[in-house]
Amino acid sequence: MLPPTTSTTLLRDLGADAQSPRWGELVARYRPALEGFLASRFPSLASESEDLLQETFLTLARRLPGYVHAPDEKGHFRNYLAGILRLHAAGAIRRRLREANALADAAALEPASGDMTEDELREWRHAACEVALSQFLADPATDERTKQVFLRVAIGGEKPAAVAADYGIERNAVDQIRHRVSKRLRALATTLAETADHPARQEPRKP
């Protein structure tokens, strides 16, 4: 499937009027690509796909008035939109894991027969990455600028030079933030995934 083309006129009209009848045009244009992204990256969230898509478009409606469409400098709009969906999907996974108490006891997600299948382990590891991202975003010890720079470059696909200019920092500082946060997320995701791979390493759940 070819990626949807972006109409600057459409984005401008919607940014100026949250009640514009042209919202149906934008949803029709981008929904198939978002559905495909969600199905390929987050298959476990199939039952929540409709809610996640609605949340994504609602978030976009709030952000559009301040959005500047400059693909050569800030990346494509479709990547920006996919980044919003990714964050909502990460939140859904985190809620699901919390409900299952999986962060404290990963064995709760194991099949009754014992060992996980390869597909289940693969999905767990992907979920672990999303949980790691959610924990990073919720960490009050990390300043908001670091979070936003990482999200815009690593998740939103924006150009590092453009993000650096927006925050008044050097391009090298953006690269350092991305590298530092990526390393931190990999370490956390690995820890979460290994908990599922080796449940014997877990501490007993406290009563």
Can you walk through the features of this model?
This protein folds into 2 domains: 1-99, RNA polymerase sigma factor, region 2, helix turn helix motif (Rna Polymerase Sigma Factor, Chain: A); 104-207, Arc Repressor Mutant, subunit A. It contains 9 helices and no strands. The protein has helices at residues 8-16, 23-41, 49-63, 71-74, 77-99, 118-138, 144-155, 160-167, 171-197. Helix 3 crosses helix 5 and helix 5 packs across helix 6 (118-138). The longest helix has 27 residues, at 171-197. It is globular, with a radius of gyration of 19 Å.
Topology at a glance:
Elements: H1 8-16, H2 23-41, H3 49-63, H4 71-74, H5 77-99, H6 118-138, H7 144-155, H8 160-167, H9 171-197
Helix pairs in contact: 2-5, 3-5, 5-6, 6-9, 7-8, 7-9, 8-9
Question: What attributes does this structure have?
Answer:
207 residues; mainly alpha; Rna Polymerase Sigma Factor, Chain: A; Arc Repressor Mutant, subunit A; 2 domains; 9 helices; 0% strand; globular; disordered C terminus
